[in-house]
Amino acid sequence: MFDKIRPLIFKLDPELAHSLAIKALKTNLFLKQKISDEAVLKSTLFGKEIRNPIGIAAGFDKDAEVYNSLFNLGFGFVEVGTVTPLKQYGNKKPRVFRLENDKALINRLGFNNSGSDVISNRIKKNKPIGILGVNIGPNWDSEDRIGDYIIGLNKFHKLADYITINISSPNTENLRDFHNLDELGNLLDKIFAEKNKLSSEIPIALKVSPDISNSIVKDISKILIQYKVDALIVSNTSDQNRDNLQDHQKYQKGGLSGKPLNDISNELINNFFKNLNGQIKIIGVGGADSGETVYKKFLCGANFVQLYTGMVFRGPKIAIKINQELKTILKEKKIKNYSNIIGKL
Asked: For the residues 37-44, what does the mean pLDDT come to?
């Protein structure tokens, strides 16, 4: 069905098409998928069993409106946000661009969301039926960005199964400065001090940029191990890597996601895997759209995989499709559980 109507969908503005998808999920237009429990795909994420390792990345369900519908589409876990303390509109439209020839998107949304009060109340009223992560960030005009992360931690530590600290969007000015080692250490110091103050056991994930140099991976890894961060998400969108793209919109300002990030993400995943020594779980993001691409991310060192752009091009049944493709690959290779291949590149 999706393959037949995709040409019509792609005639719409990408942000409008996304809004219609959210409305369709809210009204249960997409039927609940039959999801089989297969031992080959089962795993444990933050101490809780999940039926498969495929998650939806932050950015799709920014306002936490349809996470249960996404679970029903077959995703093993869902991450909502990015959520800022106060509501913000984001950048001016148009701000999302579909690069069809490259199977990619460029967005400069700018953390558009309804704010932490509205979103936390929404989660309270609609209990998640699976593992829910909340991705948090600062308001664009904040004078205390670390304080904004602390607000997010306080708002969601009792509601989410994990919280992601987003330091990697290219669409909030200077946000990526937190990749600097001193600033990253200071941020994590404040986050974990607040977590201790709250007597909270909430797992903390950090989401990094794909544009960092491989030379600082070792130092970032040391900091993550020092603070016992629970997971590293590799990676966010890229404001680089345009030269080999085909679409005429390739130089639009914003973060590039989708197929062109696959190899870049995999290389960074593998570099972090070698430096983290199995002490921190890795969630791989960037270009995942099939069983084969997910399989490769596992080989590079990812314990779990998230996607977003892949769903734009393959449709709402992508999680089911990937799981089926992945099961076929693993069974052909006589692998009992996908966790046995992590880092076996």
From this structure: 90
Angle between helices 291-300 and 318-332 (to 10 degrees): 60
Tokens of 103: 């199977």
Three-state SS at 141: coil
- The two tokens of residue 194 are 């607040």
Q: How far apart are CA 122 and CA 60, in angstroms?
A: 16
The closest of 20, 15, 25, 10 to 317, measured between CA atoms, is 25
Whole-angstrom distance, CA of residue 219 vs CA of residue 57: 26
For residue 208, what are the β-bridge partners?
A: 234
For residues 338 and 41, the answer to whether their CB atoms sit within 8 Å is yes
- Reported CATH class of domain 2-341: alpha beta
pLDDT tens string 114-149:
999 999 999 999 999 999 999 999 999 999 999 999
pLDDT at 133: 98
The CA distance from 320 to 294, in Å, is: 13
Number of Cβ atoms within 10 Å of the Cβ of 244: 8
Residue 329 one-letter amino acid: I
149: alpha, beta or left? (left if phi > 0; alpha if psi -120 to 50):
alpha
- Give how far Cα 154 sits from Cα of 45, 85, 148, 248, Å: 22, 10, 10, 43
Q: pLDDT tens digits, residue range 152-172?
A: 999 999 999 999 999 999 999
Burial 30-59 (b: 16+ CB within 10 A, else e): beeeebeebebbbbebbeeebbbbbbbbbb
Residues annotated catalytic, as ranges: 169
Give the residues across from 285 on adjacent strands.
Answer: 306
Say which amino acid occupies 123: I
**Which residues are CB-contacts of 144 (< 8 A; sequence separation ≥ 6)?**
none
